[in-house]
Amino acid sequence: MFKLSILLLALIACFSLAFAQEVKILNTNIPAGSCQDKSIANGDRVSVLYVGKLEDGTVFDASEKHDNKPFTFVVGEGKVIPGWENGVMGMCLNEKREFLVPYQLAYGEAGIQNVIPEKANLVFTVDVVEIEKLSEIPLLYKLIPTRETIGALIIVIGFVYIGKYVLSAYPSPVDKKVPKTKSADKKKK
Question: Where, by residue number, does the polypeptide cross the bilayer (predicted)?
């Protein structure tokens, strides 16, 4: 029972850590009729105009700094920070959204020297200017695991091995075999 409760506490801690790292949508503006055909899904090529700010409002990057050219990426390829991929998921063409990315889904504990401080939560304002539906790809390609899926699988495998180790290192009293004594053998005869 003790081993099981330790294992459950470890699982709860892992899940609470995973759920604490969520992108928070702060504001969204969807023009009327723009969300009828397409919304962003994993595997879509997306072009956006954006402004990236620290929580104090300091702009660290924006489309304006790049001649106002849209930034294009494929959702799910891992070419941008995970918080961006999560933040744009489900957006529609011409939708403008502001979202908060926790540091765990941004640049982590280290940040980027002289640009983004350590453990910096980021605020992005993103305007979707184009969606190319690449998510309608054959099933075979959808079965290829993403970076997040592989990471989750590694965590699950780790917990299985930790659980096996705990169970083998600390056997329960029920599992222990009691050695036979001579007096018990004499009673049987």
Answer: 149-167
